[in-house]
Design a protein that fits this description.
Immunoglobulin-like; disordered N terminus; 5-stranded antiparallel sheet; 40 strands; 17% helix; 769 residues; 7-stranded mixed barrel; alpha+beta; 12 helices; single chain; 32% strand
Length: 769
Amino acid sequence: MINTIRLNTKSLSLVLLIFLGFLLKAQSIPSPPRQIVYDNQNVSKIYITIPSDSLSAIFNNVYSDKEYKSQFIFDHNGIKDTIHEVGFRLRGNTSRNSQKKSFKISFNSFINGERWNGVKGLNINGEHNDPSISRARICWNLLEDLDLASARTNHVKLYVNNSYYGVYANVEHINDDFVLQRFGDDSGNLYKCLWPATLEYISNNPNDYKFTSGGRRAYDLKTNTNDDDYTDLSNFINVLNNASNSDLPCALESIFDVNEYLYYLAFEIAIGHWDNHAYNKNNFYLYQNPTDGLMHYIPFDLDNTLGIDWVGQNWATRNINNWGNISNYNALYQRVLGIPEYKIKMQLLLKQVLEQMTSNNFINRSLNIKNQLFNHVKNDIFYTYDYGYDTNDFWQSWTSAAGGHVDFGINPYIANRNSSAMSQFLSGNSKPVLLGGVISGKSNSAPLTITIDAIDESSLSQVIFNYRNIGNSTWTTLALLDNGSSPDKNAADGTFSGAFQPGQTSNGIEYYWTATDIQGQTARYPCSFFSHSLHSKSPVVINELMSRNSNNLSDQNGDFSDWIELYNPTGSSIDLTNIFISDKISNPEKFHLKSNTLPSQGYLLLWASGDTSQYNNHLPFKLSGNGETLYLSYKEANGTFITLDKIKFAASITNQSYGRMYDGNNRWVTFQNYPTPNASNSGILSFNKEKVLIPPFPYPNPHLDFFVYKNTLDEPSEISLHNQLGQLIYHAKIEKNQEIRIENNGLSGLYILTARYSSQTLKFKLNKL
């Protein structure tokens, strides 16, 4: 069914054709909060102060990447933050010769490992080819809407030595921090792939893929540079090029996230991102993710899109089935779409992208960018230099072509791309597309939770997790549900979940997923199977942490120490006698949890204060606000250590916690405004989302001589504490959004805390050690 929606603009009535098939929404890769750095509700100001001779050297040597020492001031709604020593230089390719240039600001140039608000640097892009200055931001927003790995983007005003340089796109850099926050691990190889990155086979020698073009490697390794080992890339290219058509799906799916690439390719076709791998063998990253063992494709450089063309093509009408450049051998694009099943899956995903891209919500957000920037562009003299653009060109960028390399206004491009794509779709029903499969749990003594996202143009009749113990030939099936019942969190969101208890002698499982729609089409992913290793020790996990605690939560001394939360995902209590926690793999026994017992689905809060002299839940180390790795280990009788859990966390900002999306879940997210120490993790909560209220809670539980009751509600409460005999031990009133410390000098055992509100009464069971 096709509906027509008319969106009135100042000079154009735009017809948007929307595909209304039943497309289940995948939720694969959560984005970190925007924070003030990428706040898209405001246009912040950046002030650079640099010696005049250094600034002259930058402009006289446009191809130099030398960084010059400068002072940086960030003004966010009148609140200023100053960094006295940053690196400042030009960045980009063709923009280096433009009048409105692009700049790189680095915070770790003169202090190794330094970050500002969790980022190493800023890419400040002039976007001189784009009269809207907004195409890149609009496209990154779309990618974020699709729940794929996307760069956070907003706009800022740049001042250099008090001179206004104009409005710039502030686009997050894709680096080790980026992949850590999206994929949960930054220890893999990250390759920046630039022209001529065809992914053609050269030889079995990994060093042959280190060739240079234009003074840099076409496949430029950005992490693990000391090792400089291209074995994973060489293997990927070998399989991609040399597997037969019949063997390619199974061979490729075992080393590369094919479905995710099809989604990115659909996105690139929808926005007309021709300066990519498929058409121009350019502008993409490949990341070898150790967490799932797969190579992942990530696009970038999205400014020449939405109707901008430099190669003589009409990207609004180009045939989606022959979209790539046949004169280039772009191995990934051509080999993958050479498989009929993959081509029809890409079509299904393109429908998903177009539905989002033509939605009222997306169009209106795009128009809001125009309104947000207009007054700031008025005084941007650099905006006028390269092509003579003025404020009329800026305002009309959404409705009409500027001429030259700008063939379409943004909205007409979207309407024409959508309409032409609908007429180009091949007939036939696609098999479901499975994305982002996750297994949560590493111990065979606790249930494993299974989660996967599914997309289909019709309803799904079943999604199945198929598994067997390693070494076993018999497969077992587990039906996954999307009905909101545990462990599924939200009904009908396209995320299917289930749980099962593995055999307690199992050292691992092999598994794959299948999904069947009501048309009878069944998809299997992967074509072969993956494996997941298990240990036989405690299933306790690191659940949440805060590495920059300023005033979020105070410890027993009233200090705001950093904290770590452990969680027991099982239905019974766990003995922590032989468990240790450390921030050094070389010294796993930094802190012994000793005789603590963690109750079923309970939490243990540990304070990373660096002082263990007074309390048994204080650690002998502190957490680094710039990120580090934590290790939870079990000590065997022979003195060896088994890693129960490991988490590497990124740099954070003050009072921001990092935790599992849900308790025990394998996906880690940032809780910017609503950390949940000693309470359940409740999904992504940040200032970009509508506030979700955290219920009141006492902590720590169990406790020693005292505990704290945190009233998170917007109403006061009357609280009382009773012992097992029903005797009143404590009574007080607590105001709204406050916390109170309650001393408990009674005997060890069970206590009942009652909190009476005007709207409800809450009761909590507390254990005193």
